[in-house]
Write a structure and sequence with these properties.
The protein has helices at residues 10-19, 29-33, 39-50, 64-78, 91-102, 115-124, 133-138, 143-157, 171-180, 189-196, 199-216, and strands at 2-6, 24-26, 54-58, 82-87, 106-112, 128-131, 162-165, 184-187. By secondary structure, it is α/β, with parallel strands linked by helices.
Amino acid sequence: MRLFIDSADTEKTRIVLNHYPCDGVTTNPTILARETVSPGPTLTAIRGLIGNRLLFVQAVSHDSEEICREAETAREKLGEPLSVKIPAGTPEAYRAMNILAEKGFSVTGTAVYTPEQALLCAQTGADFVAPYISHIDNMCVDSYNVVREMAELLGKSGKKTEILAASFRTVEQVHRAMLAGASAVTVTPEMFDLLAKSAGTNAEMASFDKNWQNKFQKRNLCHIWS
């Protein structure tokens, strides 16, 4: 299981990297458009923060040749490891995925809504497919079943394509996506805190603190041998 930060906010990304284990950063045009700094410097800054962890950058062209040109530029400017995200669903997209995979690029088929799209991406040689969990649920379709069926089809295909689940609103959605067969998830910086917390843990910590302070006051483990 791999966990990625879904953000182009460099300060929030830095905070997450300082506190939580993660495998890299995913971005897309919408995320980059939210930032006040232009995309080039933002992506360069993110690369500086994450070092040799995986960075996902999405092509914005619709023509396969232009998509491939964007991928070449992104790799030149940002280095490796890099995965080029391409929205699934058009012949040009699948052609670009196939061309880039043959050239040795890591490719992610993104905005994947159906198991059939996931299978087509896998057949091109894509390393990841990214279903948008909240968006699928908003269409009155059970995202758990969609991810489960994707995992089943990919398993039967013999391909090593991973399901990178994205677009979460709740911890329950993350939980269900992982149980359904996603081998990677990408979440916002705020979601990391939600994944880490539990009311039960908070209650136990309060109990530990109360019992320790009642007996030993403010001393910690560094001082109990003094």
